[in-house]
């Protein structure tokens, strides 16, 4: 047997990452398409001969306009007056998860629920191929104009008669991004060659990302939007104006999760009052807007739309038009979801409609009958989703499991035996043979059964690697059974092994995933207790660390149920002096934690303070703000320039891992919110006091893992996309640079886990064994979670709870692959 080297570790971890990626691909499959099944009855029952009048509509999308923002009547004077005078209709709308822009826009124009894969595609926004509201107008020879979020231009290229986009991802821009839209209004409102004008304002969403919904900037922004509404209504009184949002805004700012404020969206139709029709529905779905807007515009609804018409918004139509539209919409939905019961209900509504035509029956009763059937069908269709690719999920889970087993065994044995070439070939042939049979007889539709030119070499490579890893796992398991490698652990340290296993099994509960911070907040004191028992002379330090931990738990409310509870961040609002002192004290300690180059470190922490003072009013500037750059862009760029040169200089010396650890610590401090810098100081001090307490590398790795994820949650992160601090990605930027934004977001989000891993690599003798144990413990949790996600794939919270956690695990594994050469290096 030969010692485990960096190449073998990277190879195995990469194969584990491939397994996670395969599982994700099978789990987050593409959207379900519906086949329409026409009735075998007279077409006169099915189709309405009434042609709807063509109207003009302005669709004004205010990004992150949640419903309760409209309750601020002082900020919506014009809209509120229109509602009081019954010249407008306000309704409540709920959107589906995920609450990010791309899937919400797709739902808005196609009328169908999107899949969770759109969270990933949101960064690229591929062209929308399916039938939609805009394409219906274009195909009818009518013009659509657009101004605002350039996501629309990416998903609907060549669809607009005139257009101009603004960058949606540069969240530090609150004003210009909206001024660029409003500037186009006078010229567009003066012409009447368009049928639909789409405006997408981003400023409110950007304020939410950076400062949250309680920011003093929200009120002025809402008043600005109210003035835009007034300008449109006065300049184009013949056009209906639909004011809505693509998604809401979390109480902590941002969006992407499934909380009430994120899913609650405002909807106001100006130019007509609400139609007085009794309906069982009090809160409408976002998918209902596509068929409703199509009806008001006088075009066909999107063919894959699962939305129900919204009768209260149809008061601009004649009664005959309303019933014809309701009839066609209900027929469409029943054809998408055929069944005896719904067909009978539909035909009953048609019968009542025919009686009304000849003067018998009530208009309201007929409309309510159609609407009841349509809502029933919409809810049934909305609960459907694309079938999971179970074969891809199974291959991904097995691949991850074998790779995880290799890493765990290697952390104990620290040696592996290379199998013979012929044995590997026989194993790979067996795996590929089973795969071919499975694809040929059962799973031919699976993405891993693709027969493209590039897929065959990939199948062979994965089969060879899987066979190699399996044979090496068998060899290490045999060596372990010989008991030549006993795991020397103090009796009290078994408690840490027990809680690591307990945390892994806790991932089987949706509550424990949503509130995972509670698990780590409890486990870290257990680590401190065990460290105290093992090294009793350090008990005063452990007591201080415990007290500081209790305080840090109140820095940021996170999770789901307690995310909106008051915390230190809320208390610091309006207290720049306290915030500045806390930030200065936290930064002042960082140079003393550096292993070298303290003079440069002092300069860098000074730049960090100046950057935060320039970019936020919550930090007092030591110099006149007129000498600071706009939002600290220059200070951030100077920091990266100097710190990168400092890092390269130190990498030439003997302390490579320590050099990278120091750089990561300072870069993370730059990207954290001012009060969160203290969590990094705490994590560094705690790592240096606690990790050396454990002589066993496995226990040291468990302690580092616990510290890393405790810090992750100290900083307000969670397993929801809502808590991703998008604003941090734009530090030092004046435009949208995807790579720079992505790197900074990863540093900001995973600052704690990576810092703990770097401290583990620097502090522990035989750090490679510790890194194997560290990655093994994390992959074991991830592997178990894959099985949980597969088992609970039909769970009610699968997309709001389990899917976001999968993304976090995938990104963390990818990050570890990238950093592994640094962590594994030969020099401290």
Any overview of this molecule?
The chain is 57% helix and 6% strand. It has 828 residues and is mainly alpha-helical. The strands form two sheets. It has an eight-stranded mixed beta sheet, with helices on both faces. It has a two-stranded antiparallel sheet with strand order 1-10. The protein is globular and about 90 Å long.
In short:
The protein is mostly helical and 828 residues long. The chain contains 34 helices and 10 strands.
The biggest sheet, with number of strands, parallel, antiparallel or mixed sense and barrel status, is: 8 strands, mixed
How large is the share of residues in beta strands?
A: 5-15%
Count of DSSP E strands?
Answer: 10
Instruction: Please state how the strands of the largest beta sheet are arranged side by side.
Output: 5-4-6-2-7-8-3-9
Query: What's the Cα radius of gyration?
Result: 30 Å
Low-confidence stretches: 37-50
The separation of the N and C termini measures: 27 Å
Derived from helix and strand composition plus strand pairing, the structural class reads mainly alpha
Specify the number of helices. 34
Helix content: 55-70%
What is the general shape? globular
In round numbers, the mean pLDDT is 84
């Amino acid at each position: 047997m030969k010692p485990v080297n960096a190449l073998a570790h990277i190879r195995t971890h990469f194969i584990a990452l491939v397994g996670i990626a395969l599982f994700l691909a099978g789990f987050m499959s593409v959207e379900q398409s519906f086949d329409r099944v026409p009735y075998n009855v007279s077409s006169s029952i099915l189709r309405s001969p009434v042609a709807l009048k063509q109207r003009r509509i302005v669709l004004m999308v205010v990004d992150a306009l949640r419903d309760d923002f409209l309750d601020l009547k002082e900020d919506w004077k014009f809209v509120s007056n229109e509602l009081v005078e019954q010249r407008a209709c306000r309704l409540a709308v709920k959107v589906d998860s995920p609450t990010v822009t791309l899937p919400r826009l797709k739902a808005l124009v196609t009328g169908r629920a999107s899949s969770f894969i759109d969270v990933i595609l949101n960064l690229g926004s591929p062209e929308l191929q399916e039938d939609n509201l805009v394409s219906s107008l274009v195909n009818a020879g009518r013009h659509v104009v657009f101004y605002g979020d350039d996501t629309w231009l990416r998903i609907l290229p060549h669809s607009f008669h005139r257009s101009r986009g603004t960058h949606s991802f540069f969240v530090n821009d609150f004003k210009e991004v909206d001024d660029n839209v409003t500037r186009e209004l006078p010229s567009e409102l003066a012409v009447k060659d368009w049928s639909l004008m789409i405006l997408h304002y981003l400023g409110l969403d950007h304020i939410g990302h950076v400062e949250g919904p309680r920011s003093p900037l929200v009120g002025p922004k809402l008043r600005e939007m109210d003035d835009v509404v007034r300008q449109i209504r006065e300049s184009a009184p013949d056009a209906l104006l639909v004011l809505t949002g693509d998604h809401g805004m979390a109480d902590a700012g941002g969006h992407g999760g499934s909380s009430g404020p994120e899913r609650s969206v405002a909807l106001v139709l100006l130019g007509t009052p609400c139609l007085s029709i009794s309906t069982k529905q009090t809160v409408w779905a976002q998918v209902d807007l596509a068929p409703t807007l199509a009806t008001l515009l006088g075009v066909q609804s999107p063919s894959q739309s699962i939305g129900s018409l919204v009768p209260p918004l149809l008061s601009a139509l004649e009664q005959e038009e309303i019933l014809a539209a309701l009839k066609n919409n209900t027929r469409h939905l029943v054809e998408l979801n055929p069944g005896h019961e719904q067909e009978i209900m539909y035909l009953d509504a048609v019968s009542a409609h025919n009686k009304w035509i000849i003067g018998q029956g009530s208009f309201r009763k007929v409309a309510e009958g159609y609407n009841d059937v349509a809502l029933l069908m919409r809810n049934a269709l909305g609960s459907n989703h694309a079938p999971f690719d179970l074969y891809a999920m199974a291959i991904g889970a097995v691949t991850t499991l074998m790779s995880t087993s290799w890493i765990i065994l290697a952390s104990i044995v620290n040696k592996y035996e290379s199998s013979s070439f012929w044995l590997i070939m026989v194993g790979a042939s067996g795996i590929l043979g089973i795969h071919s049979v499975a694809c040929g007889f059962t799973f031919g539709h699976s993405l891993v059964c693709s027969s493209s030119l590039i897929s065959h070499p990939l199948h062979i490579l994965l089969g060879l690697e899987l066979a190699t890893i399996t044979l090496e796992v068998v060899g290490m398991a045999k060596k372990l059974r010989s008991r030549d490698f006993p795991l020397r652990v103090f009796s009290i340290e078994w408690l840490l092994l027990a809680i690591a296993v307990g945390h892994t099994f806790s991932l089987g509960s949706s509550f424990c995933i949503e509130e995972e911070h509670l698990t780590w907040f409890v486990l870290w004191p257990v680590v401190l207790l065990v460290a105290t028992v093992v090294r009793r002379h350090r008990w005063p330090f452990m007591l201080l660390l415990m007290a500081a931990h209790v305080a840090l738990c109140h820095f940021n409310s996170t999770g789901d149920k307690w995310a909106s509870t008051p915390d230190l961040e809320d208390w610091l609002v309006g207290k720049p002096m306290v915030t500045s002192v806390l930030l200065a004290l936290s930064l002042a300690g960082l140079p003393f934690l550096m292993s070298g180059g303290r003079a440069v470190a002092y300069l860098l922490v000074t730049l960090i303070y100046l950057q935060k003072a320039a970019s936020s009013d919550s930090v007092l500037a030591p110099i006149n703000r007129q000498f600071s750059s706009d939002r600290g862009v220059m200070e951030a760029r100077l920091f990266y320039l100097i710190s990168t040169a400092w890092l390269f200089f130190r990498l030439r010396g003997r302390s490579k891992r320590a050099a990278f650890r120091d750089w990561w610590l300072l870069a993370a401090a730059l990207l954290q919110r001012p009060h969160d810098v203290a969590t990094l100081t705490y994590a560094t001090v705690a790592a240096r006091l606690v990790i050396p307490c454990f002589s066993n590398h496995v226990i040291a790795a468990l302690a580092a893992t616990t510290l890393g994820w405790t810090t992750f949650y100290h900083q307000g992160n969670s397993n929801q996309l809502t808590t991703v601090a998008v604003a941090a990605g734009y530090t030092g930027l004046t435009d949208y640079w995807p790579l720079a934004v992505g790197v900074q977001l990863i540093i900001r989000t995973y600052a704690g886990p990576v810092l703990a891993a770097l401290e583990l690599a620097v502090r522990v003798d035989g750090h490679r064994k510790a890194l194997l144990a560290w990655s093994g413990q994390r992959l074991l949790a991830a592997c178990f979670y894959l099985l949980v996600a597969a088992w609970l794939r039909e769970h009610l919270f699968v997309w709001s709870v389990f899917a976001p956690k999968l993304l976090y695990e995938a990104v963390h594994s990818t990050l570890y692959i990238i950093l592994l050469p640094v962590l594994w290096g030969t020099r401290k």
